Amino acid sequence: MRVLLDYRAALRERSGVGEYTHQLVAALLRRARSNGRGPTLDLWLFSSSWKDRLALEPEIAGAHAVDRRVPVSVLNFAWHRLGWPPAELLAGGEFDVTHALHPLILPSRHAAPVVSIHDLDFLRHPERTRAEIRRDYPSLVRDHAHRAKRIVTISEATARGIVEMLGVPRDRIVVAQPGAPDWAPLPERPRDGYVLFLSTLEPRKNVGALLDAYELIGARGLRPSVPPLVLAGKATEDARPWLERIERPPLRGLVRHIGYVDPNRRREVYAGARLLVQPSFDEGFGMPVLEAMTLGIPVVAANRGALPEVLGDAGLLVDPERPDEIADAIHRMVTDTALAEAGAARGRERARAFTWDRTAAMVYDAYRHACASA
Question: 342: number of CA atoms within 13 Å, CB side?
Answer without folding.
Answer: 10
